[in-house]
Amino acid sequence: MKKTALFIVLLISVTSCISTKSTLKNVDDNAPDLVLKKDNTFVITLFSNDKKYGYDPDYPVNIFYRNTKDEALNETRFLNALAGPNGEKITYTRLETCCPFPTKRSDMGAGFLNVYELKWDGQKKPIKLYLNIYEKGILMVPMGLRLKKE
Fold first, then answer.
1. In what order do the strands lie in the sheet with 91-102?
2. Closest to 110 (Cα-Cα) out of 19, 2, 1
3. Which has the higher per-residue pLDDT, 120 or 66?
4. Is the pLDDT of residue 55 over 80?
5. Which residue among 59, 87, 131, 142 is least packed, with the fewest CB closer than 10 Å?
6. Is 9 contained in some domain?
7. DSSP string computed for 62-78
8. By residue range, what is the domain housing residue 72?
């Protein structure tokens, strides 16, 4: 009896952590599929005008690319295409996984955002970007960053 009660409490607590409605604002299933360049980074041609894009968990950079089996690969394909505001070389570190949301593109029925810290020479304070490997969206360079020169 105790095991059954414990299982029910555990099940309720796990399912209560995930909302049935996504808070993500910039998902676009009709976004074009991402394309790789010869250097194994994503082709990015657009620059965001939205200060929240990438910097707010409700407006993550959506980098769904064929599958989510190797999330780090898709994230590095995006991050390695970026540079600092004056073309500086950036370094990045994955800080955490956060912000569960419902998705049909995961075996669990839920996705998570990965939070990265970006640094470059001369920077006063590191920035944090929220990346989403589960959903599609228009891929853009977040405000304050540039594309790396080829």
1. 61-62, 127-132, 110-119, 91-102
2. 19
3. 120
4. yes
5. 87
6. no
7. E--BSBSTTHHHHHHHH
8. 20-149
Task: Provide the residue count of the chain.
Answer: 150
In a domain, 128, yes or no: yes
Whether 69 is in a domain gets the answer: yes
Instruction: Please tell me the total count of domains within the chain.
Output: 1
Report yes or no on 135 lying in a domain. yes
Phi and psi for 6 in degrees, rounded to 5?
-65, -40
Q: Are strands 127-132 and 82-83 parallel, antiparallel or unpaired?
A: unpaired
pLDDT at residue 3 above 60? no
Task: Round to whole Å and give the CA distance between 23 and 102.
Answer: 9
pTM: 0.83
pLDDT over threshold 50, residue 7: no
Chain-wide mean pLDDT for the chain? 87
Phi, psi torsion values for 115, nearest 5 degrees: -105, 125
